[in-house]
Amino acid sequence: AQADKGTYPFYMLKEIDEQPNVMRKLSQVYLNDDGTPVINADLLDAIKSADRLYIVAAGTSYHAGLVGAKLFESLAGVPTEVHVSSEFAYNQPLLSKKPFFIFLTQSGETADSREVLLNVNEQKFPSLTITNVPNSTLSREATYTLLLHAGPEIAVASTKAYTAQIALQAILAKALGEADDQAAAKDFDVKQQLALVANGMQALVDEKATFDKLAKSALLHTPNAFYIGRGLDYAVSLETALKLKEISYVQAEGFASGELKHGTIALIEKDTPVIGIITQQKTAGLTRSNLQEVAARGAKTITIVTDALAKPDDTIVLPTVDERMTALLSVVPGQLLAYYTSLNKGLDVDKPRNLAKSVTVE
Ligand code: AGP
């Protein structure tokens, strides 16, 4: 069923606003009151007997996979690789002895991802599709399915599906780690974290005027912009840059902040916006010094920082959650900045040029 836009000018804004409820919904569907995950036992057994996870996806779903891999490795101790579907399909890497495949796909119809699933089925490897659309092609053709319960996502730019994919991977990683008696998983209160994330998201989406203003001052008239970060913050940089480029046509790129000095810093000119995402204690100081390096070359720097790591001059401060879950909050300012840049340019936010919601050709 086509969702109703209600009083929203665009679906994208409505879908950004729905994210706190999507977090609560996933918690209700996949977690008991005591916080223990409710995941099909056959699925858990199948993943447990694998020696490596292969996450395969495209676009925003691929970016959600980059975050998911860190959750599977840190909570369940299972080595995880993430691949772009269109690359994997025709250049399959050497696989481990017992691979398990996870397809992340909002629509469940992405042709590039399906091509990989067909190959995987031919090789008789087990698979799971995590999708928002029940009975979609990839859901039907994989061994197992988990639904995102995010409600219809209409805007071409994916927002709530991304955060739903990360939240569900966190639940699955917790379930796997617990089934395997891993201390990291037992100590990780995913239910409490999702509640904190939902409240944090709400606080961010309640600050729309701030993001509108920032989009106008920093992004509206720029030809290019960079998001930088390390680790999980790098993964989110890729996603927030994609959001900005696809709907506002600003040439935006996400970079590992340590890589700047290996080439990209040559692009920095007076007033080039460089947005640093800082949520990981271990690398906060390093990303801050990378921001100083670009500021010294004239860049206009903006910071998105968790409360625990914030300094007085930071631009956007995020409520503090477990460091493994920060992507769920740090992405929201990027979604809103992209939205307001596109809106203030007078573009069709929901239907950017040259793009389809679901890419059903290879
Ligand atoms: C995201 O904003 C995109 N429009 C796009 O990258 C999308 O995530 C990609 O096409 C994958 O789609 P899927 O999740 O439906 O497979």
TrEMBL record:
The protein's Enzyme Commission number: 2.6.1.16
Coiled coil regions in record: none
Domain SIS: 43-182, 215-352
Reactions accelerated catalytically: D-fructose 6-phosphate + L-glutamine = D-glucosamine 6-phosphate + L-glutamate
Keywords, comma-separated and alphabetical: Aminotransferase, Cytoplasm, Glutamine amidotransferase, Repeat, Transferase
Residue positions of the active site: K357
EC category name: transferase
Main location: cytoplasm
Presence of keyword Cell wall biogenesis/degradation: no
Name of the molecule in the record: Glutamine--fructose-6-phosphate aminotransferase [isomerizing]
Species of origin: Lactiplantibacillus nangangensis
Gene behind the chain: glmS
